[in-house]
């Protein structure tokens, strides 16, 4: 299989940079549903612009490579040991080429291996079959949406929906609830794979297996087909919308599978995938390892309009920010304002928030902007760093630290996605701070605004966790939490809960 390594490398690069056609069609439909000029329409046009930029730049759609997972079906007699070696080599090479972010972290020491290899990484699952070719599928499922996966054990009590029993209607309630609880934090609008039955691990396995189905297929089991249709329709009445900004489309796809269970256990497992649904596959000749067919790419490649007019409406209201920011400037901002940032910002995510909570900062952060982001970086031969992808990460993980850090160092603005909680909202009020929401997954779009890397601290935390000093020009974000106690996230959570409660009455009897 001389060409297997090349084929896998090609699959990895394509999966990371080129969104599949079935996913594009779903996003395209969602875009057509939103009214021009709304926050959702604006976010969706950033998302589609980002997809086009990733195509052109052959660069990661989202900075988060996620957990690379391969599912491979092989003819009897194929050498799985050699295939595994080729896959690992291709993953390491794609990381070196900045097509993947180094994402493999030692759980005990926190060290990043730098090449996406490690104990249990990448995930490679083989299965034998009696066909004469190899079926290789890959999914790069990001961390933010992975954190929104949820598993229910029936019977249970669900907020908004009441009791969920051990029947199809109880399952319906769990799935609707899973969409509600994700809000915008998994970069909605999302896709869900659902596994009914099994145990805690095989249930999740089945849920993830559903993510390898085409968005457009029809479930052959009539009951599940009806349930999928119901979930699609009603999830899209919740009003969570793109990035949790409100809007018509909250869910882009729902695929449900069922397996047997044991009498005492009744699990409903949900795997949530963000809009940056990076999964591709190929049929590979078993003799020489060359690609004979791509999967999920039926039809002509779906491209998107660059619609500049969608931005024009918002552009008029944009407020320019340049650090250092004064308290007065920040107190002048309110939820819904669109800001355009020029000048410096500093990245900081999980490791840095923990570190800063009990240590001094390496730079003066007074009046500065902190960006929750773990970028994909490339070092050129002269030793200079370049940003290859740089979208926001989920901010809620920093909730225990954020308010205290803003006060301690005088940080005036944080940028992230998905919003933050009560503790941060209170700190924004007391200190005079603002939370700015960027569009999750739009890693090419934001990388394009970054004009220079002025320095880096904490490289020992690894590339995604280091503090990158970035100079930006025209970085756009929306104020979603302000210093007057308003939070768009809190409002959407409340209104979507009311809409969820409208689905309380039994449907599948
Ligand atoms: O690790 C990241 O860059 C982001 C993550 O995928 C997230 O959604 O929070
Ligand atoms: S940042 Fe958003 S789009 Fe990217 S992997 Fe995380 S959840 Fe997905």
Automatic annotation (TrEMBL):
InterPro entries: Fe-S_hydro-lyase_TtdA-typ_cat, Fe-S_hydro-lyase_TtdB-typ_cat, Fe-S_hydroAse_TtdB_cat_sf, Fe_dep_fumarate_hydratase
Pfam family, one: Fumerase_C
GO biological process, one term: generation of precursor metabolites and energy
Reaction it catalyzes: (S)-malate = fumarate + H2O
Subunit comment: Homodimer.
Keywords carried by this UniProt record: 4Fe-4S, Iron, Iron-sulfur, Lyase, Metal-binding
Domain Fe-S hydro-lyase tartrate dehydratase alpha-type catalytic: 6-280
Biological source species: Metabacillus lacus
Record protein name field: Fumarate hydratase class I
Protein task: Catalyzes the reversible hydration of fumarate to (S)-malate.
């Amino acid at each position: 299989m001389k060409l297997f390594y090349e084929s896998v490398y090609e699959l990895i690069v394509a999966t990371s940079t080129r969104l599949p056609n079935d996913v594009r069609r779903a996003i395209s439909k969602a875009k057509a549903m939103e009214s021009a000029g709304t926050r959702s329409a604006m976010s969706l046009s950033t998302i589609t612009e980002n997809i086009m930029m990733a195509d052109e730049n052959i660069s990661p759609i989202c900075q988060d490579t996620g957990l690379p997972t391969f599912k491979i079906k092989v003819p009897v007699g194929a050498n799985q040991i050699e295939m595994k070696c080729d896959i690992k080599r291709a993953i390491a090479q794609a990381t070196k080429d900045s097509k993947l972010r180094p994402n493999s972290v030692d759980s005990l020491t926190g060290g990043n291996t730098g090449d996406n290899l490690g104990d249990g990484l990448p995930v490679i699952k083989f299965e034998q079959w009696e066909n004469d070719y190899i079926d290789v599928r890959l999914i790069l499922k990001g961390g933010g949406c992975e954190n929104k996966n949820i598993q229910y054990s029936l019977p249970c009590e669900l907020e908004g929906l009441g009791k969920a029993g051990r029947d199809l209607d109880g399952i319906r309630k769990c799935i609707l609830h899973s969409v509600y609880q994700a809000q915008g934090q998994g970069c909605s609008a999302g896709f869900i794979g659902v596994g009914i039955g099994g145990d805690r691990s095989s249930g999740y396995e089945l849920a993830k297996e559903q993510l390898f189905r085409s968005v457009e297929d029809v479930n052959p089991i009539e009951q599940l087909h009806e349930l999928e249709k119901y979930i699609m329709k009603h999830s899209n009445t919740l009003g969570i919308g793109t990035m949790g900004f409100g809007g018509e489309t909250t869910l882009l796809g729902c695929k449900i599978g069922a397996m047997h269970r044991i009498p005492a256990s009744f699990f409903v497992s949900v795997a949530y995938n963000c809009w940056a649904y990076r999964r591709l596959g190929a049929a590979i000749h078993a003799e020489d390892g060359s690609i004979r067919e791509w999967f999920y790419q039926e039809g002509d490649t779906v491209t998107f309009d660059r619609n500049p007019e969608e931005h024009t409406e918002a552009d008029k209201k944009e407020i320019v920010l340049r650090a250092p920011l004064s308290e007065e400037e920040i107190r002048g901002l309110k939820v819904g304002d669109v800001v355009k940032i020029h000048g410096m910002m500093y990245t900081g995510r999980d490791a840095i928030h923990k570190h800063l909570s009990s240590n001094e900062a390496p730079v003066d952060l007074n009046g500065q902007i902190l960006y929750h982001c773990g970028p994909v970086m490339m070092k050129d031969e002269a030793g200079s760093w370049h940003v290859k992808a740089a979208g926001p990460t989920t901010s809620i993980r920093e909730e225990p630290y954020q308010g205290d850090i803003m006060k301690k160092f005088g940080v005036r603005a944080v940028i992230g996605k998905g919003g933050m909680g009560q503790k941060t909202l209170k700190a924004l009020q007391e200190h005079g701070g603002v939370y700015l929401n960027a569009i999750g997954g739009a890693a090419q779009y934001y990388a394009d605004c970054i004009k220079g890397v002025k320095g880096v601290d904490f490289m020992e935390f690894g590339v995604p966790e280091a503090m990158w000093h970035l100079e930006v020009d025209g970085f756009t974000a929306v104020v979603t939490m302000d210093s007057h106690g308003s939070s768009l996230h809190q409002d959407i959570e409340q209104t979507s809960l009311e809409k969820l409660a409208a689905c309380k009455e039994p449907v599948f009897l």
